[in-house]
Amino acid sequence: MATTQDRQLVEQWRGIQNSYFRTASALERALEARFHIGLNEFEILDLVAECADAECRMKALGERTPMTQSAVSKVVDRLEKAGLVSRQTCTDDRRSLYLELTDAGRILHADAAVEHRSLLKENLGE
Amino acid sequence: MATTQDRQLVEQWRGIQNSYFRTASALERALEARFHIGLNEFEILDLVAECADAECRMKALGERTPMTQSAVSKVVDRLEKAGLVSRQTCTDDRRSLYLELTDAGRILHADAAVEHRSLLKENLGE
DNA sequence: TCAATCTATATGACGCGTCATTCAATGACA
DNA sequence: TGTCATTGAATGACGCGTCATATAGATTGA
Fold first, then answer.
1. What contacts 24+ positions apart, CB below 8 Å, involve A19-24?
2. Domain span including residue B23
3. What is the Cα–Cα distance from B44 to B33, expressed in whole angstroms?
4. Which helix or strand (DSSP H or E) is residue B31 part of?
5. Are B117 and A10 within 8 A, CB to CB?
6. I want to staple A55 with a disulfide (CB 3.0 to 4.6 A). Which of A41, A82, A98, B123 is the partner?
7. What is the annotated signal peptide range for this record (chains A, B) (predicted)?
């Protein structure tokens, strides 16, 4: 039996889906067009940039994003191939890796972040 | 320069991403486990069910979901192969198709919808 | 009525995310 | 110290969504 509450829930969920997709694809398109990176690549870059000088382990990234561990690993592959990030081995635990922005990565992130924030403002700021 | 507003926007966006992913994957897992259909399959089934007896054209579906036209086409492929839906040709425009739930589709949708609403309530109703 | 154009859907190539698995390094405990 | 379980990360197979295109049917206008 479809209750009124059910219909409201479905409406609410569709609203979330729409605003999520609208925003995500606006970000995706802009970042792809102007910086040749996908949204997930940017998100990881952004997280690495936030780490500042603290070591930024792969593990930590996995905890700050809904992406899977293996997705993170592949995103980092692409970022590394693009020369934006580099994997460094940890001396205190040789299973771990931490990430560093390259100079190119720092520059691209700075520019892309401006675009990113501005698109968020357009799409989220009502 | 990272302003306070920027940080708030990023926080807001991450919040949306998290709640979207959390909810979507809970739905995905449950529907997959109990009914052997994915979330998008269910969403289409749900839209077709909403059409009641009015003809439900593929075209119309495309307008009610963030999915691409070709994604809708493929989701319908799967639903049809699973025997939950059938494509009917329109007499007034032979390019168009409309969809009908099969009996199995109606039954599965009824059960899955209960589960779907209940998971939405858990995940969205605070 | 015949082109030229447009519209509804399908399809194939491709990229990416997920799952399951693997591998090496670490920890725990006897 | 040796075994067994655990952990951080990478990898390959696979499914799905997207983009660009194809195709058949409709529409327009001379």
1. A19/A123, A19/A124, A19/B16, A20/B16, A20/B17, A20/B20, A21/B66, A22/A123, A22/B66, A23/A119, A23/A120, A23/A123, A23/A124, A23/B13, A23/B16
2. 4-124
3. 18
4. helix B4-35
5. yes
6. A98
7. none
**Radius of gyration of chain A from its Cα atoms, rounded to whole angstroms:** 18
Answer yes or no: do B121 and A13 touch at CB < 8 A: no
Domain count, chain B: 1
Q: Identify the burial level of B48 via C-beta atoms within 10 angstroms of its C-beta, where 0-12 means exposed, 13-18 middle and 19 or more buried.
A: buried
Alpha-carbon span A71 to B5, nearest angstrom: 29
Residue of A126 and A1 predicted with greater confidence: A1
Closest CA to B84 of B33, B48, B60, B30: B48
B36: left (phi over 0), alpha (psi -120 to 50) or beta: left
Angle (CA) B66 A21 B20, round 5°: 110
Reference A51, options A126, A105, A121; nearest CA is A105
Q: How far is the CA of B71 from the C1' of D30 (A)?
A: 40
Q: Evaluate if residue A90 carries a pLDDT over 70.
A: yes
Residue B12 in contact with residue B1, Cβ under 8 Å?
Answer: no
**Chain B neighbors of A20, CB-CB under 8 A:** 16-17, 20
For residue range B50-95, list pLDDT tens digits in order. Answer: 987 778 899 999 999 999 999 999 999 999 999 999 999 999 999 9
